[in-house]
Every structure is written in C-alpha cells, then in structure tokens.
Design brief:
Elements: H1 16-47, H2 69-77, H3 86-101, H4 104-117, H5 127-132, H6 137-159
Helix pairs in contact: 3-4, 4-6
Length: about 180
C-alpha cells in the first residue's frame, strides 16, 4: 500500500471509527513524508540560492575601494570652466559603494557609464579615441582592453534578457581598477 507500513485485512469489515482512525494514521504518515520532502527541497533551494525572497549577495566582496579615495579627492580639487566633474565624482563614489556591497552587476554598469562619460575631457568623442591617442604602447593596450572587456561584461549585464539559467558576474570579471 502506498502510505501504509502495516498489513491490512481487506476481508474484515471495519467500523466507522476504525476506518476514521486508519485514515487519520495514513494522513499523518503522508503529512510526515510530505513535510520531510518539502524541507529537503527548501534546503536545496536555499543552498543553491534559488529561493525567492532570500538574500542573494553572498559572493565575496571586493574589500578595497574600486576608485582610490585620493583620486576622488584629486578630482574634487580640479576647477574647470569647461567641465563640471560632480557627476564623475558621484559615479566614482557609487562605484565604491557597489564594490563595498558586492554589487557586481552595478559595478559593470557603472564602469561602462564612466567610460562613456569621460571622453570629452580628453578632447575625444569616444573612449576608443582616448585609448588610441595615448602616448605609451602599454597604456594604449590597457585602455583598449578596458574599453573592450568592460563593454562586453556590461553589455551582458545591461542588455541580456532573462534566461532559464543565469551566470552572474564575479568580482574578478568586473575588476578593472588597474
């Protein structure tokens, strides 16, 4: 029998009370098995971080600032009649906040925003132009890598539609501090 650990004599006529007692016992056995299975499934969902409503940001956090605080202080000291740096400064501060909280999707998006925001400061229309007009070969290579790699990561974060199985960015993928 599906829910019974006991043998039943089907030839014997049971009283209403006996039927009721057996049904209650079967229900209790079913409920115990159901609760055990439910607990196992819930624990698996928690372990895999798939349970809706659960805190999901358990990935290791980037400890240090993404943008060095002294660099932000230097940006605050710049006085320009041509450019207002308040937005750039705020973007850098938000990048540090996201880094401290392990918000890797937001880091990818903010790096992209900053890359798109700064070219006019360097007299260019795009970041690729900035990179191509840098003097040193190593610097040029680094800036072009920043342009392509960060753009690929941020494109995946910003423009990819929902899928049956997601791959979230990691701290290493969004680490363009150098």
């Amino acid at each position: 029998m599906l829910f019974s650990d006991e043998e039943v004599d089907y030839d014997r006529q049971l009283s209403f009370e006996e039927e009721k007692a057996r049904a209650a016992a079967r229900f209790e056995r079913f409920k115990a098995r159901h609760d055990g299975a439910r607990d196992a499934v819930m624990q698996g969902l928690k372990t895999d971080q798939l349970l809706l409503g659960e805190e999901r940001r358990t990935a290791p956090k980037i400890v240090e600032c993404y943008v060095d605080k002294s660099r932000i202080a230097q940006l605050r000291q710049i006085r320009s009649t041509k450019f207002d740096l308040r937005r750039l400064i705020r973007l850098c501060e938000e990048l540090n906040d996201c880094s401290a909280s392990g918000s890797f999707c937001a880091i990818a998006a903010l790096v992209r925003v900053i890359i798109d925001h700064v070219p006019p400061i360097f007299g260019a229309a795009t970041f690729s132009e900035v990179a191509n007009n840098v003097g040193g070969k190593s610097d040029k290579k680094s800036l072009l890598r920043l342009q392509t790699a960060s753009r690929d990561i941020s494109d995946a974060v910003l423009h990819q539609q929902i899928r049956s199985r997601e791959v979230l960015p990691t701290a290493i993928q969004v680490d363009f501090k150098n």
